């Protein structure tokens, strides 16, 4: 089975490893990610102002194009997922905005696409118990912290991803891969997001709190669904280390990288060279290479 | 109508909390016979769980026990505890109420209330009366001052019922009152009027994922804090947190937990939380002198007589720290409980590393109120509270003649208001009886 797939800009640049591992894993799991034609940037932020129609046009155009090709659209990046899913819902529910948007983009899209996140496909269409059976190299002994961040979950009533205050889908996924998912209180806290541009110290502080909370609760690795989060919690670790000298760096994986490992893909194809904190020493130590 | 078509001047009160007790005593003192039906083994209701009451800081049990005893001994009041209304037929002047008397497995005629069985019972389980903080026995009374002071066996916890062995209570009972074979039985009562005073419940703290899902043992609700404060409670009145028995030095109280939250929980104000939280903070300070109480609030609603003065005293003389704002998250941080909130008066984020958190959870209707209302043919509102005939001018009557409501079954109330409501209902019944 094929899934129409919207990669998003970052997955073509800084997060190539995220994109590639997801595509490779899907083939092993019996489905293919079919890339949407002529896609553009999703807009990267769902507009907070209710009259900001312009900011809704890029995701709307993506949705309208996707509807011409299929009935569902899959994303990997949590930010794209958020922007696209919320725009889709708005088009479906707000007739006035729908008409305005359609006038602008010269389409007639009604908001009837199903927006999926890759993790949802793994849960609903593959099934975590099936997934567990398909793993060839379970990640036994790896204590991993599932970091949701904001975008997968919030706003709760629009994203409808999992339990609003205490989600477990991501942990269930890690357990299916054979890892030990550790619980930590910062798992749905904000990574600092775009503050890393204007007030980098704010984002560094957010990342520090998240990482130290995970470390305190026994995590050996962080797992992310979002290039934005990954930038803040992985690439910012050098800044954290400068500020907090006793900080112990911790590798940050995209969930598809761990999926690839568990599915038995050669680690050299998993794009670890793009990870800021080198995960290889940990994987060696755990006997997972 | 009665045997010869006469209007039966005998009343039933459903619910033996402070409202039901007050109405029963009024009617009994008025010379009318009353049947008081209570689903728990003894009367007293929620008030019996409380430690001290606002704004006077009277001991709840000291003020209530004379009332429960009076009810138990009143020549005109017939107590049917551990009983539930099964069906209701008839109309004002002649209601026929079928009542299920639940099996207690103890012959109350023989039982002298000596309490030996409770001492010797080997099965200890979390006590519902103590909000699962203390342990109760499988054979138990609700409190040492229970009226009637007769125990019941909870078959879900009793070793004999579960494993067919034990029978310790049977062996120890000096009067042979234990009867494992007892069955539920039904009785019919004929009355001319019914007062429904079935009280309230609290929204479960497990509803609040952001506050720890009920999996942090030191996040408790207001009634649990009452039990911690109570001399008859699991800590005999010492403030010790449930997880490790340590005395908490920093306690955070959160008002409006589930109240005034139309998007997610109850849109209404539960009316008593501002006052009882202020009381909690003061009682805490009276017992833990070097402790600090923080209260997160939305507004302070202290509209009763002496209430505002009570709040001010807490702030000015007892050092309660009020923070206007909501709490977004609570989680465990080692032995501490991290509380994240906001102080909207300064606009600053607040983080408190607390030892215990008390949630002033919303007052909700009892789960079975709707069912009972169906049997009585009266209405409930969208939240399950009983609907009065007219919001302002007929606050204790219902749409059915001869059926009245009293206390928190109609909506959240404090004790004073519940008692006034019950007095009004009793007076309405006496008026009805006087007209016939």
Structure overview:
The complex is a heterodimer of chains A (289) and B (436). By secondary structure, chain A is α/β, with parallel strands linked by helices. Chain A has two domains: 2-118, Glutathione S-transferase Yfyf (Class Pi), Chain A, domain 2, CATH 1.20.1050; 128-285, 3-Layer(aba) Sandwich (Rossmann fold), CATH 3.40.50. Chain A has helices spanning 16-29, 57-69, 78-93, 95-105, 118-126, 128-134, 156-159, 169-176, 195-198, 200-216, 227-235, 237-243, 255-262, 280-285, and strands spanning 2-6, 32-35, 72-75, 114-117, 143-146, 180-182, 221-224, 252-254. In chain A, helix 1 (16-29) links the parallel strand 1 and strand 2. In chain A, helix 2 packs across helix 3 (78-93) and helix 6 (128-134) runs parallel beside helix 8. The longest helix of chain A has 17 residues, at 200-216. Chain A is globular and about 55 Å long. The two termini of chain A are 31 Å apart. The model of chain A has no long low-confidence stretch (mean pLDDT 96). Chain B has 436 residues and is of the alpha/beta class. Chain B folds into three domains: 10-100 and 184-199 and 366-435, 3-Layer(bba) Sandwich (FAD/NAD(P)-binding domain); 116-172, no CATH class; 203-363, FAD/NAD(P)-binding domain, CATH 3.50.50.60. Chain B has ten helices and 24 strands. The longest helix of chain B has 21 residues, at 415-435. Chains A and B meet through loops of A and strand 19 of B.
């Amino acid at each position: 089975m094929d899934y129409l797939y919207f990669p998003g800009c970052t997955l073509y640049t800084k997060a190539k490893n995220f994109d590639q591992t997801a595509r490779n894993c899907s083939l092993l799991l019996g489905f293919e990610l079919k890339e949407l034609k002529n896609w553009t940037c999703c807009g990267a932020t769902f507009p907070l102002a209710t009259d900001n129609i312009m900011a809704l046009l890029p995701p709307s155009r993506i949705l309208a194009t996707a509807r011409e090709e299929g009935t569902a659209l899959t994303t990997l990046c949590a930010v794209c997922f958020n922007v696209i899913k919320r725009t889709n819902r708005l088009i479906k529910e707000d007739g006035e905005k729908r008409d305005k948007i359609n006038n602008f983009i010269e389409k007639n899209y009604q908001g009837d696409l199903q927006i999926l996140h890759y993790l949802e496909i793994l849960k609903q269409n593959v099934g975590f118990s099936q997934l567990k059976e398909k793993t060839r190299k379970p990640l036994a002994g790896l204590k991993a912290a599932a970091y949701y961040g904001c975008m997968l979950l919030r706003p709760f009533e629009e994203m409808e991803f999992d339990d609003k205050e205490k989600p477990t889908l991501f942990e269930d996924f890690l357990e299916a891969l054979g890892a030990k998912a550790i619980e930590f209180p910062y798992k749905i806290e904000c990574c600092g997001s775009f503050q890393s541009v204007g007030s980098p110290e704010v984002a560094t502080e957010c990342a520090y709190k998240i990482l130290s909370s995970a470390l305190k609760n026994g995590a050996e690795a962080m797992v992310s669904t979002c290039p934005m989060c990954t930038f803040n919690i992985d690439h910012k670790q050098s800044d954290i280390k400068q500020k907090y000298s006793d900080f112990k760096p911790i590798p940050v994986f995209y969930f598809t990288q761990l999926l690839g490992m568990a599915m038995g893909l050669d680690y050299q194809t998993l794009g670890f060279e793009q990870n800021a904190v080198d995960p290889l020493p940990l994987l060696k130590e755990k006997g997972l290479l | 109508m009665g045997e010869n078509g006469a209007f039966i001047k005998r009343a039933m009160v459903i619910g033996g909390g402070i409202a039901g007790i007050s109405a029963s005593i009024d009617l009994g003192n008025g010379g009318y016979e009353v049947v008081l039906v209570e689903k728990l083994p003894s009367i007293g209701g929620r008030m019996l769980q409380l430690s001290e009451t606002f704004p006077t800081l009277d001991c709840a049990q000291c003020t209530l026990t004379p009332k429960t005893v009076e009810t138990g001994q009143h020549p005109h009041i017939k107590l049917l505890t551990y009983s539930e209304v099964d069906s209701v037929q008839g109309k004002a002047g002649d209601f026929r109420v079928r009542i299920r008397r639940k099996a207690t497995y103890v012959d109350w005629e023989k039982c002298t209330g000596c309490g030996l069985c409770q001492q010797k019972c080997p099965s200890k389980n979390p006590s519902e009366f103590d909000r699962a903080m203390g342990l109760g026995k499988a054979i138990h009374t609700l409190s040492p001052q229970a009226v009637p002071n007769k125990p019941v066996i909870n078959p879900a916890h009793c070793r004999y019922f579960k494993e067919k062995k034990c029978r310790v209570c049977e062996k120890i009972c000096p009067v042979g009152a234990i009867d494992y074979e007892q069955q539920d039985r039904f009785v019919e009562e004929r009355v001319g009027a019914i007062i429904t005073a079935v009280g309230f419940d609290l929204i479960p703290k497990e509803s609040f994922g952001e506050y720890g899902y009920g999996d942090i043992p030191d996040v408790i609700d207001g009634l649990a804090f009452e039990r911690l404060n109570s001399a008859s409670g699991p800590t005999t009145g010492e403030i010790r947190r449930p997880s490790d028995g340590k005395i908490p030095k920093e306690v955070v109280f959160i008002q409006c937990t589930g109240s005034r939250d139309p998007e997610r929980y109850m849109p209404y104000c539960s009316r008593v939380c501002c006052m009882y939280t202020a009381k909690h903070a003061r009682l805490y300070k009276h017992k833990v002198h070097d402790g600090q109480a923080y209260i997160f609030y939305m507004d302070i609603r202290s509209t009763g007589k002496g209430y505002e003065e009570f709040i001010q005293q807490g702030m000015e003389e007892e050092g309660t720290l009020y923070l206007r704002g909501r709490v977004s998250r609570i989680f465990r941080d080692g032995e501490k409980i991290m509380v994240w909130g906001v102080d909207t008066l300064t606009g600053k984020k607040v983080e408190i590393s607390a030892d215990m958190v008390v949630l002033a959870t919303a007052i909700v209707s009892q789960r079975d109120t709707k069912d009972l209302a169906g049997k009585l043919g009266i209405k409930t509102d969208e939240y399950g509270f009983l609907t009065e005939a007219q919001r302002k001018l007929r606050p204790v009557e219902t749409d059915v003649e001869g059926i009245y409501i009293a206390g928190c079954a109609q909506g959240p109330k404090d004790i004073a208001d519940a008692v006034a409501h019950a007095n009004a209902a009793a007076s309405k019944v006496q008026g009805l009886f006087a007209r016939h």
